[in-house]
């Protein structure tokens, strides 16, 4: 550092870069620094600021590293404590099952219900209500479990919004093949399948026409021309059952086929039963731990458009002082921009709570 500023030199900058490394061992730092700041205060300040900035970044990186290590370490110990029966030697061998058993801990609390044999395990996928090809969750569920057990574990933003506005209701159905499985547990549950079944009953021709189109798509007409067949499509015999009294082993389904989950009026998701197998000794043997979440898509959050640091908590629309429309705000920035001495400055805009994307 000493030679960064050779005594009497007025040409500071080039020397700073070239001599920096070779003279680190010098012991007369203070002397030099005095001279340095005297001669060129501007460069000194910007240099120190830069170093401080880099030190901060470095520190942040170290903290991140430490937290990641801590996290994975915790996961490991958790699984060791809570896993089914994991011998010491097996700990590394089955990483995947270890991570699964870590999740079991959080969901199953203290219950320990042995699994009946033979039991089947099903892989159940849920897709996004709008981005239809985006898988949001994946579960492992037992064949003897009721469909409501998995419904209660499905996460959807619509549920959260309805809870916020106090209009949440438990009604909903799974349409699997030709069976509507209605959730009728709630006191004021609505049978969503009823108007559909009524329409099928009362408008048979209309329904059949639509069904033919659904089944064959645009190829229908071409096939008809080619085969010259008068064979009429048959409408499936749709029926309805209660979800809470229907188990996976009670229903007929095809692996990999897309079925429907509908809730909160008309929030619809594709669901897929992807795989089926017998339970294995390495699977979690506690029935209360199922349905196990094996995949959960990462939730995306927007940052506050003002400070660009904190997660957005509010979103405004048609807000004349906002930088964009719609505009995201953290609570702090929102109140700083819209309130003075506790009173709202203007109200010709709409504001909503923001949860996530
Ligand atoms: Zn939904
Ligand atoms: Zn902010």
From TrEMBL:
It comes from the Eukaryota. Residues 1-35 are annotated as: Disordered. Its main location: nucleus. GO terms for cellular component: nucleus. It is found in: Nucleus. Residues 23-35 have a biased composition (Basic residues). Signal peptide: none annotated. One of its GO terms (molecular function) is DNA binding. InterPro entries: snRNA-activating_su3. Keywords: DNA-binding, Nucleus, Transcription, Transcription regulation. Belongs to the SNAPC3/SRD2 family. This is snRNA-activating protein complex subunit 3. The lineage of its organism: Eukaryota, Viridiplantae, Streptophyta, Embryophyta, Tracheophyta.
């Amino acid at each position: 550092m000493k030679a960064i500023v050779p005594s009497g030199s007025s040409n500071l900058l080039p020397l700073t870069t070239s001599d920096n490394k070779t003279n680190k061992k010098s012991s007369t730092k203070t002397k030099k620094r005095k001279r340095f700041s005297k001669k060129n205060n501007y460069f000194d300040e910007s240099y120190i600021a830069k170093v401080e900035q880099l030190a901060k970044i470095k520190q942040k990186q170290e903290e991140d590293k430490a937290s990641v290590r801590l996290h994975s370490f915790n996961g490991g110990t958790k699984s060791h404590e809570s896993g089914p029966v994991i011998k010491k030697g097996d700990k590394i061998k089955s990483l995947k099952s270890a991570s699964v058993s870590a999740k079991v801990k959080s969901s199953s609390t203290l219950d320990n219900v042995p699994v009946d044999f033979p039991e089947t395990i099903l892989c159940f996928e849920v897709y996004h209500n709008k981005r239809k090809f985006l898988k949001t969750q994946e579960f492992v569920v037992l064949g003897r479990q009721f469909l409501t057990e998995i419904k209660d574990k499905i996460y959807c933003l619509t549920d959260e919004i309805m809870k916020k506005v106090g209009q949440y209701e438990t009604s909903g159905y799974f349409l699997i093949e030709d069976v509507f499985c209605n959730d009728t547990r709630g006191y004021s549950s609505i049978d969503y399948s009823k108007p559909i079944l009524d329409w099928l009953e009362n408008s048979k021709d209309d329904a059949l026409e639509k069904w033919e189109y659904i089944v064959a798509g645009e190829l229908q007409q071409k096939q008809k021309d080619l085969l010259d067949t008068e064979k009429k499509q048959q409408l499936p015999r749709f029926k309805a059952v209660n979800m809470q009294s229907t188990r996976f082993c009670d229903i007929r389904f095809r692996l990999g086929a897309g079925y429907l989950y509908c809730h909160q009026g008309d929030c619809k998701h594709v669901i897929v039963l992807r795989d089926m197998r017998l339970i294995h000794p390495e699977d979690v043997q506690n029935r209360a731990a199922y349905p196990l979440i094996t995949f959960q898509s990462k939730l995306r959050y927007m940052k506050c458009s003002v400070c660009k640091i904190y997660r957005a908590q509010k979103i405004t629309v048609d807000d004349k002082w906002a930088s964009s429309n719609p505009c995201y705000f953290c609570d702090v920035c929102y109140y700083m921009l819209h309130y003075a001495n506790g009173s709202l400055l203007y109200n010709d805009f709409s504001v909503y709570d923001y949860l996530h994307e």
